[in-house]
Amino acid sequence: MKRPRSALYVPGDNLRAISRARTLGADLLILDLEDGVAPEHKAQARENICAALREGFDCPVLVRLNSSGTAWEQADQQAVLCEKPDGLVLPKVEEAGVPRSMTLGLPLWLMIETPRGVLAAPDLAAEQSVAGLIVGTNDLAHALRTRPAPGRMPLLHALSAVVLAARAHGKCVLDAVYNDIHDAEGFERECVQGRDLGFDGKTLIHPSQVAVAQRVYGVSEAEVQAARELLSAWETGRAEGKSLITLRGQMVEAMHVEEARAVLLEAGA
Ligand SMILES: CC(C)(COP(=O)(O)OP(=O)(O)OC[C@H]1O[C@@H](n2cnc3c(N)ncnc32)[C@H](O)[C@@H]1OP(=O)(O)O)[C@@H](O)C(=O)NCCC(=O)NCCSC(=O)C[C@H](O)C(=O)O
Ligand SMILES: [Mg+2]
To answer: Which of 33, 50, 66, 221 has its CB 3.0 to 4.6 Å from that of 72, i.e. a possible disulfide?
Structure first.
């Protein structure tokens, strides 16, 4: 699966949203059976998700199950066995050694959203069946008893710890959701911050958030131009026998060249 810049949660009990999700151009959909679905709607949500998976999607689709040990565990697993999604999202994971029965042989995306989960993130990211980590800051902030603060200051340590764990094991890592669907500016600011922190993409809750996440986490034309310029300067420098070069006063080393090549590759340039 390509690095998802945007991953939209879609409540499994909301048929309208499931239908709408097909049209939004998100890189990844997460059909939800967990916190986005009230207990009395879980059975209907499982049925809807089965039917939607049978119909198929144009983009990769994950299903978020209820936690291991809940009353819904067995029924959730049966539901995703009927028509397998591209992976499973397991919420509130806290220790390595995810039970084999939970994996169903599918790639796993583990939600890091408790203090113990953050501390276990390096071991969780190391597991072979794990494709990615997803931060859940609603649960995490609740468990940590932090208060909302500008720039997510109280959560920065945890956010970076999760990125560090994912990167150490070559796994994908997605930032948490932004709850205020009417605050477009705040949302974009948080996307930029997440990208600066090293996240691959952002999880989303509303259609209005898709395009912004795609843009902020995507490769811009300016980045393509800068990458081309850097590669050209590097090749000239190397031809002149230099081990490293400067470009606009900035030192350029081999890893910057690697980054520039990755930018062009991702942009298909
Ligand atoms: C947040 C919402 C409840 C807002 O709903 P609503 O007021 O109905 O939104 P709109 O009227 O603006 O909707 C316009 C149309 O867009 C469709 N829609 C809305 N949301 C989605 C979506 N997520 N995916 C697909 N389509 C969506 C509506 O159906 C309208 O369509 P139409 O009628 O055809 O015009 C709502 O957006 C929502 O439920 N969002 C998802 C919430 C969710 O999934 N929450 C759980 C996951 S986040 C989480 O758990 C965090 C994590 O675990 C943590 O701990 O942090
Ligand atoms: Mg959560």
So the answer is: 66
* Residue showing tokens 């049209």: 23
Question: How far is the C-alpha of 25 from the C-alpha of 69, rounded, in Å?
Answer: 34
Q: Does pTM surpass 0.90?
A: yes
What domains appear along the chain, each with residue ranges and CATH number?
6-217 (3.20.20.60), 221-267 (no CATH)
Is ipTM strictly over 0.90?
yes
Ligand 1, atom 40, residue with closest C-alpha: 205
Which of 35-44 are b and which e, b meaning 16 or more Cβ less than 10 Å from the residue's Cβ?
A: bbbeeebbee
Whether residue 21 has its Cβ less than 6 Å from ligand 1: yes
What residues are paired with 159 via a beta bridge? none
The H or E element spanning position 210 is helix 210-217
CB 69 within 8 A of CB 92: no
Composition of the chain by helix, strand, coil, percent to 5? 50, 15, 35
Give the distance from CA 197 to its chain's centroid: 13
Quote the CA–CA distance of 110 and 231 in Å, as a whole number.
37
Rounded to whole angstroms, the maximal C-alpha distance in the chain is 70
| DSSP type of residue 121 | H
Ligand 1: residue whose CA is nearest its atom 4: 206
Q: Output the CA 205–ligand 1 centroid distance in Å.
A: 5
Mode of pairing for the β-strands spanning 172-175 and 130-135: parallel
Q: Which of 74-83, 199-208, 226-235 has the lowest mean pLDDT?
A: 74-83
Rounded Cα–Cα distance for residues 51 and 214 (Å): 28
pLDDT tens string 69-93? 999 999 999 888 888 999 999 999 9
Answer whether 30's CB lies under 8 Å from 9's CB: yes
